[in-house]
Amino acid sequence: xxxxxxxxxxxxxxxxDLSIETLRGLACVLLVLYHTVGADRSLGLKVEDxxxxxxxxxxxxxxxxxxxxxxxxxxxxxxxxxxxWGGFVSKKLRRLMVPMFFVGTIYLLVKLAMPEEVNRPYxxxxxxxxxxxxxxxxxYLEATLVLFAMIAAIDHFRLAESRRAAVAWMIGAAAFxxxxxxxxxxxxxxxxxxxxxxxxxxxxxxxxxxxxxxGAPAAVQVGAGLVAVALxxxxxxxxxxxxxxxxxxxxxxxxxxxxxxxxTLFSTRWTWRPLAFVGAYSYAIFLLHVFASAGSxxxxxxxxxxxxxxxxxVGMVAALGLPILVQEVCGYSRVLxxxxxxxxxxxxxxxxxxxxxxxxxxxxx
Length: 365
Hints:
- The protein is mainly α.
- The protein is built from 13 helices and two strands, in the order αααααααααααααββ.
- The protein has a two-stranded antiparallel sheet.
- Strand 1 (352-354) and strand 2 form a beta hairpin.
- Helix 3 crosses helix 7 (192-210) and helix 5 crosses helix 7.
- The two termini are 39 Å apart.
């Protein structure tokens, strides 16, 4: 059975959409900013409520993880599983679970060994690490695996090949998140809170690509943009405390705001090469940025640097730069490539070769 006529063909192998990479870069910057500043005044830079940085991180709640997840849905829709459900899921198991166990365990062990100025994680029996109770932000990997498996099953059984079916799935997912979300908001077991939270945005990304949101009538796209702008204004009332709970992840207004914002950004086809460059390393940045942001903060504070904005800038640069360097190094080793990035063992690796200057080394293609 063929894909419905309204769907777009997947991109050619190796093709890159710079607008998608730009949005990935934006999502990376927002995530790194959030973890560098800290989720609240007891974490990260310990920024107080009522400050510019606290307002900025709180205001971006509606965009950070929804945008990451929306883009994952778009990328999946470029190369959907359909008849290859088993192979697709097995590849995602390697890609997501190997780094979760390897990098996540190192992260937890490092934090347990750090002095008090680093935020120590909860104490868990070792048998509960990762799968049962995900380690801090690595919950996203387990939740994403479930979402990939779910959409692959939907496609395998051809359950979302029409716009009508897609709309039904979206309404159901949004309603499910809004109704069930408040009851599982604190349930970290098996990343349940994350699965419920991210489900609408993942499906939205899949269907936005599959049914060509960018080709929708201009009035429809502008309407989504106006909804996003209006709800950003409403969300600011929540940040200011004028409207209770408006910033909670599972409220219908925040779900609608996040979806409208993702669609609007996708519509713009905005490209900016510095962000696109960062976006190309988005997975490594997600996995490794906390090591660099926390590490740079500790070193600078030990040296007597306590200016919040200096710590912020250095932490951001380190958190973006170190993962990029690590990903490049991983290209030279199948072991590192597998353990840190979850990439396949097979395939070419970079080689070091001598140039005319004996002391310089470059990577081969």
